[in-house]
């Protein structure tokens, strides 16, 4: 079957909770295959991790999901995080035997159409820098490269900074945290933070008697925003672990990146932040999630 025929034989439909098992298998196989080709560790290290991820994505009320079927069999999926004015794309995965044949473009077009329908002011994603074909695909779909992000992993630092106390975030902290996110990015990520507060993973840092930064978690799916790099260092220093492949550190924040290296955190891989639509140059300091 030619690439043109295969891409047009694909049927797209919304994802369902009943799709968790086949989608988990594909997300594990796809990440393992592409990572092995480039001699990198896979982002999804086991089918169990893939199942946990797909369970969250296919049951969360604020994630849009689309699956691709060929002859009635699921062969790929893609997701759109709709919790903020800026939407985050991914993970997009396709059965390894039919990759590079137009299926990924159709899955991307589906989520971009959804973002337009829902009037999101921007769409963002993080792309594995070693995967040149995805960089090309996203660029042809209108995404622009913004900056390089280092995925970093290592032992918890387990330190506290004088005058920068860190504690668990509470719902009454949301307004102050939203203000910080708007200072850093020009928009807030209120629903993501609320999810993290309810899960018990969110933290805030205070300085001078007021909240100066927050983190939803420390890992691939956690983001952070802070007024200064010092605030962000205090948050990272408090983490009990760096979940998944690691935290995502913008390399243009040289003091933060160099501090992470001084704490013996290692670079696992480099990713590229890409955006479409509204984008403001960040102020202060931040960590993105793997979606943006």
Structure description:
Helix 2 packs across helix 3 (47-59). Strand 3 and strand 4 form a beta hairpin. The chain has 9 helices and 14 strands. The two termini are 36 Å apart. 35% of the residues lie in helices and 27% in strands. Strands 1, 2, 3, 4, 5, 6, 7, 12 and 13 form a 9-stranded mixed beta sheet that branches. With 292 residues, the chain is α+β, with helices and mostly antiparallel strands. It folds into 2 domains: 3-120, Aminopeptidase (3-Layer(aba) Sandwich); 152-287, 3-Layer(aba) Sandwich (Aminopeptidase). The chain is globular, with a radius of gyration of 19 Å.
Gross geometry: globular
In the CATH hierarchy, what is the architecture of the largest domain at level 2? Answer: 3-Layer(aba) Sandwich
Largest sheet: 9 strands, mixed
The quaternary structure here is: single chain
The overall pLDDT, averaged over residues, is 95
**Distance between the amino and carboxyl termini:** 36 Å
Query: Tally the helices: what do you get?
Result: 9
Strand residue percentage: 25-35%
Helix content: 25-40%
- Taking pLDDT < 50 over at least 5 consecutive residues as the criterion, the unreliable ranges are none
- According to CATH, the fold-level topology of the largest domain is Aminopeptidase
User: How many structural domains does the protein architecture include?
Assistant: 2
CATH class of the largest domain: Alpha Beta
* Category from helices, strands and their pairing: alpha+beta
Backbone CA Rg: 19 Å
Helix and strand element order: HEHHEEEEHEHEEHHEEEHEHEE
Number of strands: 14
